[in-house]
Amino acid sequence: MLDRGGLSYIRPRFLQRPIQSAMKWTCLFVLPLVGLLVACDSPSPNALFTRLPSDSTGVTFANEVDDRPGRHILNYTYLYNGGGVAVGDVTGDDRPDLYFTANTRPNALYLNQGDFRFRDITEEAGVQDSLGWTTGVTMADANGDGRLDIYVCKAGNTGDTPRRNKLYVNDGNGTFSERAAEYGLDAPAYSVHATFFDYDRDGDLDLYLLNNPPIRDSRISSRTPLQQRRAFANDQLYRNDGDASEPRFVNVTEEAGLKHDAIGFGLSATVSDINRDGWPDVYVANDFDVEDRLYLNQGDGTFAESIHDWIDHMPRSAMGADIADYNNDSWPDLYVADMLPEDNRRQKLLNIGQRPRVGEQVQFVRNMLQLNNKNGSFSEIGQLAGVSSTDWSWAALFADFDLDGLKDLYVTNGIRYDYTNMDFQFSDYVPASQKQEAGPEDLYTLIEKMPSTPLPNYIFRNQGDLTFEKKIEEWGMTKKGFSNGAAYADLNSDGALDLVVNNVDEEARIYRNNARTQTDHRFLRVELEGTGQNRFGIGAKVQVTTPSGDTLFQEMMPARGFQSSVEPVLTFGVGEADTVDVIVTWPNRLQQSISEVRTDQTLTLRQEEAQPTTPIPESPDRSLEAVDPARRGLAFTHQENSYEDYRDQPLMTHMVARLGPALARGDVNGDGREDVFVGGARDQVSSLFVQRTDGTFESVAVEPFEEDRSYEDVDATFIDVDGDGDQDLYVVSGGRSIARPEAYQDRLYLNDGTGTFEAALDRLPSIESSGGTVAPHDYDGDGDVDLFVGGRVRPLKYPLSPRSYLLENTGGRFQDVTAEAGGSLRRPGMVTDAHWADLTGDGAGELVMAGEWMPIRVFQREGNGAFTERTGDLGLDRSNGWWNRLRLVDLDGDGNLNLVAGNWGTNAQIRARQDEPAFLYAADFDDDGDIEPIMSHHIDGTEYPIPRRNRMMDALSLFRARFQTYESYAEATMEEVLVERQWEKAQHFRAYTFTTSVFEQKDDGTFTRHDLPTEAQFSPTRGILVHDVNEDGRPDLLLAGNDFTVRQPWGPSDAGKGVLLLNRGNLEFEAQRPHQSGFFAPGDVRDLLLVPSPETSHVVVGNNNGPLDLFEISRPSTEVASQALSE
Q: What is the distance between the alpha carbons of residues 586 and 571, in angstroms, rounded to a whole number?
């Protein structure tokens, strides 16, 4: 496609391809006589970027890809992966030049003549390569002479000769000489891209070569992609063993410890010192079902594959990637692109991650943003950050485009044909490919039936709170097409980064950045002059500090994104700072510091001026310290049973059967020390740990626990039931794996005063509800402790409300008085937590409860003994969420109680807002006796069902007749999915927020919700401790939680690693992540328990299906007592 005066000219044959015009935001019309296609491309007149026409720039390069019977996307999956672009000054005139690769046509080198004008010098420079199938390109100084060379990668199903990679060595006179064979770099290895870096820090550049063979679609080939892949070379590492006069690269892949036997479909290899140990590491993004690789440099010439040590999950079809410090903490973060569309229609119409997989899954189809935790782990927060869904994405580039001091994100997008369109696959593709007599011409004719959907590229503004804001229209990226490789560079030397994009069947795009004219933001460009054979300082780290204390960090590593390399100059946006301090650390660890550098200039740093430095060891002042639970006598591993909720209710998105372990504390033997109860899963014996005088614990056998091992313990509390002065134990039975009601009978164990317990089931009424929580309180004021037991779930009937119980203590025996208390307490919802607290000032205490799909509900006892709901009176009637944990405490010292409520978090595909809530509709829609829960949420202002068609039809076959095609279902709103009779039949649930929050009680008694910091939203919050950790007189919050049970295609919610929120007053909190606080809780956390000891206090972390974690609070402190009456 070629741009001319705002109109896009397309070769006539493309007009025969169906254009997907049903998308609401697409506006295309065809002028049939001249073959014109005009797309909506009307960015804001004050857009940050301006797309420059080719008749102005002189850049007319277009990567036109021809298909034919023997070569098309159905027999070569990577036909439309496109080409790359490399940017750098190859002529020494201080202006970055451009090199584009075309898959089957000549590549092109453009000389930058200034003012965004370029001249094609391909032939005169001697780089007119058009042999074979060309993929990525990298500019690097391969021979250490100070001039940028050009390395071009080859792939495709061709012979060895046309598939040999090319190295165009810069002769210094405007011409290049092809010398790949001479350098040992002409491998015919099906290469995608190459990254030059000094992995052994010997002063010259080595090479990581990313390879990916031609793979046929598994429905056409008799072999799977993995079987096909085994016949070809894997990625290769070349060590530079030559010198400037005679460079020579040697293949050291095997001896370097790279996984030579690993199956790989690499689409990008990105280099960064991820663990900040001074040695460059390599992240490889793999396509298909092959896991990505993280090769950590061991500093001895070898690498260790460490992906599962650092990363919990990864993309399923990883493509382009970038590594950069996007949150300004001087540690590199990782972004990897995948193929999940943003809009509902394409999510449901395309076969994106819909195939089931066997075994444990760590790959899921969406872009992933891995936040570096600075402790050997990442937290994947792409959904929270708003960058998880950018459709069929290729290049990913972090850069500060608006020069405000925060790195923004650019993602290229689009595939020429929607060959994963489910209707096309099942109606046309699969039947045709299965015909034995089908030949190349037969398959080729299917191309005519394949939809084609041009898409805009995505650009996001960094908001400085770990999240991004989409800026496609405002920043001028509305042009639709099929973009692949991209690079940034300051093409006009104004200090703002421009963009260069390589497209399929369309001219390359050049975007001028207008930040210097539209804002008052300033910049600093840093050029590096290295010594030896690393003249561009590849691998050097530069840190810029502004007067306000902001620290900006970059590494010199030009190869990034997808098949491309950026200008080898570092550009820092510094906001309005006039001066900055600069520190550069060279690959050999020499360092150079310059203070009060004026901004709005180019600063050249020279390695020859650097000096040795003595590293200052970190001595972090952490509030918590991890200790070995076994050494403290608290060894316990929760062993969950194998039941999965999805077996009985396949439309559920997460499990409610895995809620343990229960944690409780109390002095069971009267020695003044707190002991610990840990509840087991079904068929697991619970444990009691008695605290010794030295603060360690001893496990003691309790015979009734063994007898009751068939129950699943989800909550517990120590209380004096019979008034004899010792602590008895009440345990809530939960789960949902058994249909029999008696499987959920709660249990009471009476203490004889010495820590010896006996079962007292006869003191409890019959309880037939799978419970979630227990809240003790003398609600009737008769001097003994009564109980509220919240029902969590009805087995096999999610999300219908289970029974809850109000149990009145009468002489040490409990009676079910729920009916007398009023009907609203009988089935208040799926209760997860409850407490008693005086919120109304009557001195009696109200019952406060939270739950899934529930508002935070408050019930007040009236004079006649009945309970009246006060939720609406207190301003909590629209507080519905997926609440997991609740604490009540005065956080701001105003005398009023605040509610701290742990919610699902915002790091999820499902969203909820006050004006666009998430919904759940539940009924036995098909009259088979089972409850089907259909969840929905809003996308672009319209409510759509969440289940994809296959899952919905498998669960409810009655919909098959109405939605016979994937397209009909993909376009159906929730209002169109359910008919009137089904709407009337369904129970409706809603959630207005998924944000973990604090509710402030105002002087009039009502509550106002405030979001807790972003770090508290990484995952579901299931454990909350209130404790003055830093002894400043203000209660702090310790939060933890995850949910590993979330079903595909979303995948586990596992980004939570624990967070300490230091209370700074006025309900403002400072978030401390694990490297700051010492609190690292990455498991499937279900609860936290604070246990005081003689010298310190312990934090016990209860992990579902895993061992306990244990932490000591470093500073002795007094626990901040929750003012909830139950505590």
A: 17
Q: Which two tokens stand for residue 482?
A: 């099929």
Q: What are the residue ranges of helices labelled H in 405-531?
A: 422-424, 430-433, 440-445, 515-518
What's the sign of the alpha-carbon dihedral 876, 877, 882, 886? positive
Residue with tokens 């000032």: 841
Per residue in 66-82, is it b (16+ CB within 10 Å) or e — as a string? ebeeebbbbbbbbbbbb
Residue 677 has pLDDT above 50, yes or no: yes
DSSP, residue by residue, 372-413: E-SSS-EEE-HHHHT-S--SSEEEEEEE-TT-SSS-EEEEEE
Whether pLDDT at 166 is above 70? yes
Q: How far apart are CA 748 and CA 762, in angstroms?
A: 9
Note whether 201 and 279 are within 8 A (CB). yes
Whether pLDDT at 8 is above 90: no
Beta strands at 541-545 and 579-585: parallel, antiparallel or unpaired: antiparallel
CA distances 696 to 666, 743, 1097, Å, are: 15, 35, 11
Predicted confidence at residue 870, as pLDDT, reads 96
Can you spell out the DSSP letters for 765-823? ----SEEEEEEEE-TT-SSS-EEEEEEEE-TT-TTSPPP-EEEEEETTEEEE-HHHH-G
Which of 464, 424, 605, 428 shows the shortest CA–CA distance to 529? Answer: 605
pLDDT digits (tens, 9 = 90+) for 37-86: 334 566 677 999 999 999 999 999 999 998 888 788 888 889 999 999 99
For residue 616, give the 3-state DSSP assignment: coil
Secondary structure E strands in 855-906 = 857-861, 867-869, 881-882, 885-889, 898-902
What spatial distance separates the first Cα and last Cα of the chain, rounded to whole Å?
69
Q: Could you give the angle at the alpha carbon of 275 between the alpha carbons of 269 and 279, nearest 5°?
A: 70
Neighbouring CB atoms inside 10 A of 313's CB total 19
Indicate the helix (H) or strand (E) that contains 550: none
For the chain, list the domains and their CATH numbers. 49-417+452-528 (2.120.10.30), 659-837 (2.130.10.130), 918-989 (no CATH)
Q: Higher-confidence residue: 170 or 362?
A: 170
In 3D space, the residue among 193, 250, 286 whose CA is nearest the CA of residue 557 turns out to be 193
Sign of the torsion formed by the C-alpha atoms of 418, 499, 486 and 407: negative
Residue 786: both structure tokens together: 């009564």
- For 802, the token pair is 């289970």
Question: Of 126, 91, 121, which Cα lies nearest the Cα of 109?
Answer: 121
The pair of three-digit structure tokens given for residue 610, joined into one six-digit string: 């650097």
551 burial (CB, 10 Å; 0-12 / 13-18 / 19+) is middle
At which residue do the structure tokens 């490889």 appear? 284
Residue type, 152: V
